[in-house]
Design brief:
Blueprint: H1 3-10, H2 14-24, H3 50-66, H4 74-84, H5 92-101, E1 132-142, E2 148-156, E3 162-167, H6 172-186, E4 191-194, H7 198-201, H8 211-219, E5 222-225, H9 235-249, H10 257-274, H11 276-281, E6 303-309, E7 315-318, E8 321-324, E9 333-339, E10 344-350, E11 359-365
Parallel strand pairs: 1-4, 4-5, 5-6
Antiparallel strand pairs: 1-2, 2-3, 6-9, 7-8, 9-10, 10-11
Length: 376
């Protein structure tokens, strides 16, 4: 058969048939080595010379035995080679590879554990099928001429639905109104997460809930307050804060707040269009009923969640009070669920390395005082 017919019969290129025929040319078929041949060159053109490798290993051994500083890693080896005037000095990365190739790495390689899944710290019944909106402020940005403004940013954990609202004053009231306009347009989630700033939490007096918390509870949204000075919990909103600043604030020269609002709205719209499939696949959001009205004086009902790290003696500060949770679990993460209906605070132990096991630690009695709400 011709090369062309063989290639058509086996569904391969003609060059493939020619290559295998050439490989078997002049040989008995049972003696042909049919294994694929590597196309890599036998000698790498840019491979570090054996002399340079020996110089690296020799320098390391001398530094390890005689260095006054006691350092013999890639940086120290490179400094020493520069000091003694070695020719053809490799780069720091090349020195690192040479040491690995010769088994001359004394340090222990850090074991990187996989990160926990998004929302791993939520109550277990809501980890996979509930949406969470995170909100945060970018504060004290200065327009040309000295005018100061702030930005309220929001992003949903599952869908990546974003929103940004530049404001001249940072207050609980305009935070509530901007959140409410966002939720009227897209629906509200099961959870809303914040840091512990005054605009979100309200007064830090004991037994108090601010306007943002009362808005959430009035709609059936569970507010969550992230632990202070802890990484990871606010990662989604902090990442969006950075993107907003790079894509809006850092790229243009603004003269007034209206120009910032216009450019910010364009960025938000473009981001939503980019993530339209992800937003559509996210858990369902809930519509605000026409009969619903926000009443700050109504007694709050529902659950408020605090993620906290226990102190030296196993206590956590919740609602302005210190509670002894577990003296044997000092400095551990816990989730405190303030149940305003059952008048208790439930505590659960959280571990990033075991994100699916939320050990129940117990509860304490707590009754939220039913008193008239006073604005800040």
């Amino acid at each position: 058969m011709s090369f062309r017919k063989v290639a058509e019969a086996f569904g391969v290129a003609r060059s493939t048939v020619e290559r295998w025929v050439k490989l078997a040319e002049g040989k008995r078929l049972d003696r042909v080595d049919w294994a694929d041949r590597s196309k890599a060159p036998k000698v790498v053109a840019n491979r570090t010379s054996e002399e340079a490798e020996r110089c690296v290993i020799r320098t390391r051994e001398q530094l390890k035995d005689f260095s006054d500083l006691g350092e013999f890693g890639p940086d120290a080896i490179l400094r020493e080679m520069e000091k003694i005037g070695c020719e053809h000095r490799p780069s720091r990365a090349t020195i690192h590879r040479i040491l690995e190739r010769h088994g001359a790495m004394d340090g222990r390689r850090r074991k990187r554990l996989p990160p926990p899944p998004p929302g791993w710290y939520l109550p277990q019944d809501g980890r996979k099928f509930a949406e969470l909106d995170s909100f945060d402020h970018v504060e004290d940005l200065y327009i040309h001429g000295g005018e100061v403004f702030h930005v309220l940013n929001g992003i949903s954990l599952r869908g990546g639905l974003v929103g940004s609202w530049p404001v001249t004053r940072l207050t609980s009231e305009n935070t509530v109104q901007n959140m409410l306009s966002h939720w009227r347009e897209f629906g509200f989630p099961d959870y809303a997460q914040f840091d512990n700033g005054a605009a979100f939490f309200g007064s830090h007096w004991p037994d108090s809930l601010g306007k943002v918390s009362r808005l959430c509870l009035s709609l059936g949204v569970t507010p969550i307050f992230a632990p202070p000075r802890e990484t990871g919990f606010q990662a989604a909103i902090e990442n969006y804060n950075g993107r907003w600043q790079r894509s809006v604030w850092d790229r243009f020269e603004f003269q007034n707040l209206h120009e910032i609002e216009t450019q910010s709205a364009r960025f938000v719209l473009a981001d939503r269009e980019k993530n339209i499939a992800r937003i559509a696949a996210a858990p369902s959001r809930w519509l605000i009923e026409n009969s619903w009205k926000l009443d700050y004086q109504a007694p709050p009902a529902g659950t408020v969640i605090f993620i906290r790290r226990l102190d030296d003696i196993g206590c956590a500060e919740i609602m302005g009070h210190r509670w002894l949770v577990d003296a044997d679990r000092s400095h551990r993460l816990v989730r405190a669920e303030v149940d305003l209906m059952q008048n208790i605070i439930r505590f659960y132990h959280l571990r990033r390395r075991d994100p699916h096991n939320h050990a129940y630690l117990g509860y304490v009695d707590y009754t939220f005082p039913n008193r008239k709400f006073k604005e800040n």
